[in-house]
Amino acid sequence: MLVDSHCHLDDERFAEDLEAVLVRAAAVGVSRVLTIGTGDGPPEIDRAVRIAERFQQVYASIGVHPHDASKVTRQTYDDLRALGAHHKVVAFGEIGLDYHYDFSPREIQREVFVEQLRLARELHLPITIHTREAWDDTIAILREHWQGQGIMHCFTGTPAQAKEALELGLHLAYGGVLTFKTAEEVREAARITPDDRILVETDAPYLAPIPFRGKRNEPSMMVETVKKLAEVRGTSPEELAVLTTNNFERLCLRPANATRYT
Ligand SMILES: [Zn+2]
Ligand SMILES: [Zn+2]
Fold first, then answer.
1. Whole-model pTM above 0.70?
2. Ligand 2 centroid vs 222 CA: distance in angstroms?
3. Which residues have C-beta within 8 Å of that of residue 184, sequence separation ≥ 6?
4. Could you tell me the distance, in angstroms and rounded to a whole number, from the CA of residue 153 to the centre of ligand 1?
């Protein structure tokens, strides 16, 4: 059994065939999925929760993506707080900083990131972090404002950056990028990530692994990433499946969170 710890099932590219996508995933062992709740940003922030209500094997996160930081109002935080009590909500995110696109001013991104860290703490939810071309600011903010569990999603950094994130107590989630030819540094980071801190994800519909690169990604395609990751770490896909599933359960479905899952 495998868990896709990060995908976007509310994306319009899944509107036509979401049920078939989940059936294909289950057929190859991807029997649980965490769908990310950031959608197109506020005011609509419950799309993932609605999907999780429809499918037993789907869990949801809530949060505002850094791209949408400038759309946040006081109401948004109230809405997030209310959604945080939902029994299928098991994580907060993806939150963080994206200086590549700069869709929201950087200062606002930082402010909204910090505010959401506070909220995640209040809701006792682990965070899932998005960081792009903003590594140092992301780490600095986490050091100052976060004590708790979390996931560096779609980790594509260097081994040194992996160590920084691990020192903060974070888990590292590897996705399709790990299979790309040029991603030798990412594979090196994956080699040194401890057994109890590693996760896998798709970030579907984005970043399909080889040999599907360029196509719409979906949770079933994660088996290619798992194969590669197992090879890199000198283990078997089966062992890696057990490891990453246990890690996900401990992180997001822990007993303290028992009322959050069905
Ligand atoms: Zn992301
Ligand atoms: Zn994502």
1. yes
2. 14
3. none
4. 7
